[in-house]
Structure to design on (761 residues):
């Protein structure tokens, strides 16, 4: 796997914390996200460990000393029964679907490599996850739940939604981040306001 | 006291949306007092109607299950936090192509979906009001385009729409109230593509102000429009019609879930049963208006079934909860050489309606398409659920965020009887059966979005984009309680008055007989403006109590 080089290495969206780009309601919400990572309340310890192992493969963060937490926010959402506002009729209820998935990848890991998912190395973990995405994972836990639908529409969607809601991810992709009340002035291509991530070629220069 | 936990609009006052911690006086009615109108829902339909009827002197109580926010202090610049603006109570989505709900198309707050809409305010093409007669598909609307054109102008004035001096498609229209916004880099990609393809384009008419208005200052282009506007530049119903309604003496009840419309032995509506502040209550009313949009309005009518109306209220035709439509929301995305930074400005600042006005094509209906500017969570979720990309590759692809550009359609789908809303076995937090939504595309819908993907691919490439990929989704809801010309195949007449119950009305997007290829909000507001005028006219003739003979004759 080729190395990943984030395009705006010198940019930190949090440096704008005390500027007119951030207001009190935003500071409150982001502070909470950064300082109060939810504790385990929904999954059991094994499920919790398995989910961490899954998220670590979906969005690997070998470059970070402190990876953006993903699994805790999934646990929190399930604990609070927080729906997105709908459920596909063919899918089991949210709580049930996540448990089936975690059990299912353990069964597939056992069938393939004779050990639970958390005990697999990264390549084998990826192979199990790819099997789920292709509806080819072994195991009875899945029942009639469509593996690919769960993988892409629930698991992956949820993980990506949590990761890209974190300031570290905003900085990584050069997103301006919170922008109230100041907003932006320069809207045309290749122009930026002084409070936006510097252009790559400015870096090179 | 959080807006989501405790009702704010109580004891003679309601939140002042323009001032932090502020209040405005609000007239309050007793549950026992028979008001002229109980309106269920405060969005583009209900909020507009509440203001207009109160201004005409009627006593009005408007209910909303959502919170009553003050944007300046309650809205963070954060996608995740702001999902509080979406309808997140459980619903079941089925059919051949189960549609996403929640953030996709359903609001839950005072002001309804206009609090999170992307402010695109386009008029219907005139011929669409006679889609069956003039274009050979769908149904005709029982309202003519010239009349609607007048109401569009009214709605645009009420929302201070910022738009171009001349609009390239359709009959001439008057000046927009506010000047157009500067088109951002994402929009300029569409402009470049349109020039290369030889089609027209326009700065999108938008419901966000380009100059001060009252206490609101102009749009600062922060780009969080879909997450709620924290500066009040966005002309949502929350900051336009709702303050007008309160000033004119309407009462707005937040965190109030209407579970049932009550009817008497004579088959007339007598009021609503609603849950607020920990208990079920009953508001008496001479007229009830359902304005909960295409899912909640049919759900409410179905949940209000009685021995006399076993199939739900206003449903003798069997069309309540049928003919639900969405807009196909297919998109093409690509990477540009230059930095676009599409997070700046409203998400869709340039529009092309070419295929709404060109009839040489292999499908019925039309589509508009617009430039795009999704924020990171929205974009990442759409990207992964469409492409299935994960791992280091996902982070690499997302790192191109600032170089991305996209074109996305609002594609008309056909009204089909089988697409709709029924009741599921499951119950919500109020103990009410939840909505079961069924949707499936038909062949014409597929031809439309495939056409759009081919066209937008060529256009985006012509604009200089590489590494193209496509996504599919849906947006908006239309239909579900179609209005029409006669009682046997529609729910209401042209005035939103149900055929079956004289004093039960509908005023929201569920009335749409066809979907049109443009975002629905402006048409919903315009229709509510019209329904208000009609109610005032009927009242003046003494025909509110009973449907007039002339109308009855017309209907027969």
């Amino acid at each position: 796997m080729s190395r990943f080089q984030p395009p705006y290495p010198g940019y930190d969206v949090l440096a704008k914390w005390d500027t007119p780009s951030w207001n009190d309601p935003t500071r409150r919400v982001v502070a909470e996200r950064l300082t109060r990572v939810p504790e385990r309340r929904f999954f059991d310890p094994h499920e919790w460990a398995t989910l961490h192992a899954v998220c670590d493969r979906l969005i690997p963060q070998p470059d970070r000393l402190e990876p953006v937490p993903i699994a805790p926010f999934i646990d929190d959402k399930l604990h609070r029964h927080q729906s997105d506002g709908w459920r596909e009729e063919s899918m089991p209820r949210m709580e049930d679907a996540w448990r089936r998935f975690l059990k299912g990848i353990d069964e597939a890991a056992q069938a393939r490599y004779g050990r639970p998912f958390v005990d697999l190395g990264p390549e084998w973990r990826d192979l199990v996850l790819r099997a789920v995405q292709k509806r080819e994972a072994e195991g009875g836990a899945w029942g009639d739940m469509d593996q690919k639908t769960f993988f892409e529409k629930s698991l992956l969607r949820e993980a990506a939604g949590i990761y890209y809601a974190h300031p570290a991810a905003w900085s990584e992709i050069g997103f301006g981040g919170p922008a109230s009340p100041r907003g932006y002035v320069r809207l045309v291509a290749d122009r930026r306001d002084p409070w936006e991530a510097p252009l790559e070629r400015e870096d090179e220069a | 006291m959080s807006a989501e936990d405790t009702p704010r609009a109580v004891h003679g006052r309601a939140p002042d949306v323009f001032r932090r911690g502020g209040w405005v006086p609000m007239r309050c009615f007793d549950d026992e007092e028979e008001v002229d109108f109980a309106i269920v829902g405060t969005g583009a339909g209900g909020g507009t109607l509440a203001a207009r009827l109160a201004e005409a002197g009627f006593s009005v109580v408007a209910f909303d299950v959502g919170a009553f926010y003050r944007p300046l202090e309650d809205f963070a610049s954060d996608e995740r936090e702001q999902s509080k603006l979406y309808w997140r109570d459980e619903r079941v989505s089925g059919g051949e192509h189960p549609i996403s709900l929640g953030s996709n198309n359903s609001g839950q707050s005072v002001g309804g979906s206009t609090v999170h809409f992307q402010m695109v305010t386009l008029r219907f093409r005139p011929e669409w009001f006679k889609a069956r007669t003039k274009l050979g598909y769908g149904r005709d609307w029982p309202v003519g385009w010239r009349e609607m054109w007048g109401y569009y102008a009214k709605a645009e004035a009420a929302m201070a729409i910022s738009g171009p001096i001349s609009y390239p498609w359709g009959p001439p229209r008057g000046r927009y109230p506010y000047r157009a916004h500067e088109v951002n880099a994402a929009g300029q990609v569409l402009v470049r593509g349109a020039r290369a393809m030889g089609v027209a384009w326009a700065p999108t008419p938008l419901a966000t102000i380009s100059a001060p208005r009252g206490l609101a200052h102009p749009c600062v282009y922060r780009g969080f429009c879909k997450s709620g506007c924290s500066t009040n530049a966005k002309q949502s119903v929350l900051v336009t019609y709702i303050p007008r309604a309160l000033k004119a003496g309407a009462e707005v009840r937040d965190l109030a879930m209407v579970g049932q419309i009550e009817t008497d032995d004579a088959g007339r509506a007598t009021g609503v049963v609603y849950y607020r502040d920990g208990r079920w209550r009953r508001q008496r009313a001479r007229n009830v208006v359902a304005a909960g949009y295409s899912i909640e309005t049919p759900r409410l009518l179905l949940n209000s079934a009685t021995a006399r109306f076993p199939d739900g209220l206003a449903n003798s035709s069997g069309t309540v909860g049928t003919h639900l439509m969405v807009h196909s929301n297919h998109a093409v995305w690509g990477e540009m050489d230059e930095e676009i930074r599409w997070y700046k400005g409203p998400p869709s600042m340039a529009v092309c309606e070419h295929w709404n006005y060109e009839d040489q094509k292999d499908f019925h209906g039309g589509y508009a398409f617009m430039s795009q500017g999704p924020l990171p969570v929205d974009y990442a979720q759409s990207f992964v659920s469409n492409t299935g990309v994960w791992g280091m590759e996902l982070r690499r692809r997302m790192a191109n965020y600032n170089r991305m550009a996209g074109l996305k359609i609002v594609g008309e789908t056909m009204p089909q009887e089988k697409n709709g809303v029924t009741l599921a076995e499951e119950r919500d937090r109020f103990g009410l059966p939840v909505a079961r939504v069924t949707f499936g595309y038909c062949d014409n819908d597929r031809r439309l979005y495939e056409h759009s993907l081919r066209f937008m691919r060529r256009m985006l490439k012509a604009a200089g984009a590489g590494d193209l990929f496509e996504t599919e989704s849906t947006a908006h809801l239309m239909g579900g309680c179609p209005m029409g010309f006669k009682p046997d195949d529609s729910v209401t007449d042209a005035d939103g008055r149900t055929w079956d119950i004289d004093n039960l009305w509908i005023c929201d997007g569920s009335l749409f007989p066809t979907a049109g290829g443009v975002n629905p909000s402006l048409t919903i507001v315009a229709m509510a403006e019209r329904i208000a005028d009609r109610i005032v006219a009927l009242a003046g003739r003494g025909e509110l109590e009973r449907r007039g003979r002339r109308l009855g004759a017309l209907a027969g």
Summary: Residues 13-204 of chain A form one domain. The mean pLDDT of chain A is 95. Chain A touches chain B through 66 residues (CB under 8 Å).
